[in-house]
Design goal:
A five-stranded parallel β-sheet has the order 2-1-3-4-5, sandwiched between helices. The longest helix is centred in the N-terminal third of the chain and has 13 residues. The two termini are about 15 Å apart. It is about 40% helix and about 20% strand. It has four helices and five strands.
């Protein structure tokens, strides 16, 4: 059975790109266009992995991440943060308190081969 990846991103082009990339690699994908929709899908579908864009309207990726990690249903799902900014600390300074840091932070533009290796490591580990 294929591993399921939830892609949360407000950019349609990125949703299509990531879904195509993952499906070509043999994964099942589900998409959400904002943090609110992403949280609902994460709770309902319990994906094996979540990719989360940081810069989104309606509910930021940081807030979405905090809610994912605070919820018993979703706290153990690996999360890869996607960002156009290079410093994780810009988003995840002391604001997370006792919450776990993201499992990986990947800068855009995505380097396909290393990104898929990170995804594979998190899903197999």
């Amino acid at each position: 059975m294929a591993k399921k990846i939830l892609i949360i991103d407000d950019e349609q082009d990125m949703l299509v790109y990531l879904a195509t990339l993952f499906e070509t690699a043999g994964y099942e994908t589900v998409t959400a266009q904002n943090g609110i929709e992403g949280l609902e899908r994460a709770r309902d579908l319990r994906p094996d992995l979540i990719t989360l864009d940081i810069m989104m309207p309606r509910r930021s990726g940081v807030r979405t991440y905090t809610e994912l990690r605070s919820d018993e249903q979703t706290r153990d799902i690996p999360v890869i943060i996607l960002t156009g900014l290079s410093r994780q600390e810009d988003f995840f300074g002391a604001d997370l308190g006792d919450l776990a840091r993201p499992d990986a932070v990947v800068e855009k533009p995505i380097e396909r081969k290393s990104f898929l290796a990170t995804v594979g490591r998190l899903l197999d580990g």
